[in-house]
Design a protein that fits this description.
Elements (H helix, E strand, L loop, with lengths): L1 H19 L22 E12 L5 E15 L2 E14 L5 E13 L8 E15 L4 E14 L4 E12 L9 E14 L4
Antiparallel strand pairs: 1-2, 1-8, 2-3, 3-4, 4-5, 5-6, 6-7, 7-8
Keywords: Signal
Organism: Sphingobacterium gobiense
Protein name: Outer membrane protein beta-barrel domain-containing protein
Length: 192
């Protein structure tokens, strides 16, 4: 009987210790970052994984992919370049493929920031084109957005603003309109 009692106590002890070591994890949804990711000398790499917009000039719907990379020249101010690859579906016409490249300037506002996020403004000017056709022309963009940091180096972003291109992608002479994009950025520390 003593052996049976000892065996029950021993098994009970193992069960309690196994229960005590169970670790439950939940996905990280935010990180307190302060100014660290947007300090002078850091890099940002990422882009918009979806940019959906509607043209004012014609019945056209567009979706774009905008990879970008930038360098922080001072705290909160980044300069860089972004590419634009997209598809425009024009009502009752052939689909049009868009492309472009443009330098950008992005400024992260110090006011209104939370411990895990920052508001920013971004402006860009570059060249854009479309196929079919061989139009290459001016492209402008002025956007505002919010970066929510899910880790110390990764942020999810939402951006909205006005974009203009003189490329002849429909029956009119160009396109302009409001757009919304969702994307991500990875912030890489630079050498100090």
């Amino acid at each position: 009987m003593k052996k049976f009692t000892f065996l029950c106590l021993l098994l009970g002890g193992f069960a309690i210790s196994a229960q005590a070591q169970r670790v439950e994890t939940t996905p990280q949804t935010s990180a307190n970052v302060g100014l660290e990711p947007i300090r002078q000398g850091n890099w940002m790499v990422g882009g918009s994984i979806g940019n959906i917009g509607y043209s004012f000039e014609g019945d056209a719907f567009n979706i774009n992919l905008n990879p970008r990379a930038g360098y922080f020249v001072t705290d909160g101010l980044a300069i860089g370049a972004q590419a634009s690859l997209g598809l425009t579906a024009v009502k009752d016409e052939d689909n049009v493929y868009n492309y472009g490249i443009s330098p950008f300037v992005r400024y992260y506002f110090p006011g209104g920031a939370s411990a895990s996020g920052r508001f920013f403004g971004q402006g860009d000017i570059g060249i854009a084109g479309s196929k079919p056709g061989s139009d290459v022309s001016l492209a402008l963009g002025l956007n505002a957005g919010y970066a929510h940091f899910i880790t110390q180096t990764v942020a999810l972003e939402v951006m909205a603003g006005y974009n203009y291109s003189k490329a002849n992608i429909n029956a009119g002479g160009g396109q302009s309109g409001l757009g919304v994009s969702v994307g991500f950025q990875i912030y890489l520390p630079g050498q100090r």
